[in-house]
Please model this.
Amino acid sequence: MSDLQHWIAEGQKMEADRQRRIKRAKEWKFDTIATHGLYDPSQAFNLNNGSIMEPVYLSPAQAYRDSFEMEAGLSYQMPNWCYSRIANPSTAFLEETVALLEAYGTDIPTSCLATASGMSAIRTATDPFLIVDEELPPPNIVSSAKVYGGTFQQFWVRRCQEQGIEVRWIKNPLDINEWASNVDEATRFVYGEFPSNPSVAIFDIKQIADLAHSFEAPLIIDTTCASPALTRPIAYGADIVIQSASKVISTSGTSIVGLLTSKKNLVSKVGCAEMKADFAMWAKLWPYRDNGPSINPMAAILTLNDLRSLRMRVAQMSRSTQQVAEYLEHHPKTNIVSYPGLKSFPGYELAKKYMQLADTGENLYGYMLLVEIKEDSPGSTKNTRRFYDNLDMIWRATDLGRVKSVATLNAISTHQQQGEKGRELAGIATNAIRIAVGIEDPADVIKDLEKGFAAI
Model:
């Protein structure tokens, strides 16, 4: 015969075992964490019939042994997953692993929330900081202007134009003075991409974190184009990290997934104590539950399977991209090549500080570059389109982070809707092509680029 206290006590045992597994995983190297996460034989034998690999739980709801277990679970007094719109065991396997990787090399406690897309992760991460608070001045958002087109639209159209929330764009994220002149007592959060998509712009994470915190604002960073294998902003003071895991984390191209990882006890001038203490878990149990941007359990496991080899893939892709960037930089038919690994890159020394391969410390700079093709006259895209349309092996698409190389004309695709003024803010020229290098031999990628140049 059980009662409510029995199930609360059972929940405490479950949490104690989880902490044991976290402590064990914290002693491992990056690849070992990515491979195992918190899943171990005790879970396999007790819950999953001895399955070595994490199972896919496609069931939408959990059953309870009695009314007291249900009461304890649904009042959040014991760990449970209840309903897949709120949580799911397969999703938890991914979240637990990512939380460890984003804080790798530190003692900072973190938690993670998986969402249906990178855009839903951004929305879930930022909404709670924009609540109405009559004791504060009208809110503003301070963000680098060099962000993905969808992020620009979410901030500028959905937040500013539709909700009346002021957005202050930072044109040069390397300029600390520009940030400082925009962040103030009304700033609810500070936001940036590191490196940005597609212009690969970066900024000084530590400096911006300190600035944001001096005004009790959290720093939120999207590191999709680096991944935790190269850059872990939480170690430098960031409060929340966003990943569009649809990219290099889920590199096989099977899933759309977003990830929100927060450090515990983050900085914020708004919100309840519970929210600040464990933002990602609070978001899961409250606004995420109510808004419903949940990830499909199959997508979670497919992403987790790709995640296991993240560091090795990012290393190979980065080394290949370095070769491609150097080739393009010296090609007579290009104007500018933006890549953090080039000495000509404005933030090269800063990139060396923040972009290092986990465990080895090797400076590597990611899988994405931006190249501007020389045109015969200002505003023309004739050569750019000829080059682009003559690529044979490299895919023409809006994707990136794949095992297969992909090229994108951002002005007519990912950043088309934000208009000419928005593209100017983001530094997206009409003759710019984003190239995301995959795991092919770099010599073959360069051969294919030669085919593009041959058409000019």
In short: The chain has a mean pLDDT of 95. The chain has two domains: 4-307, 310-454. The domain at 4-307 is CATH 3.40.640.10 (Aspartate Aminotransferase; domain 2). The radius of gyration is 23 Å.
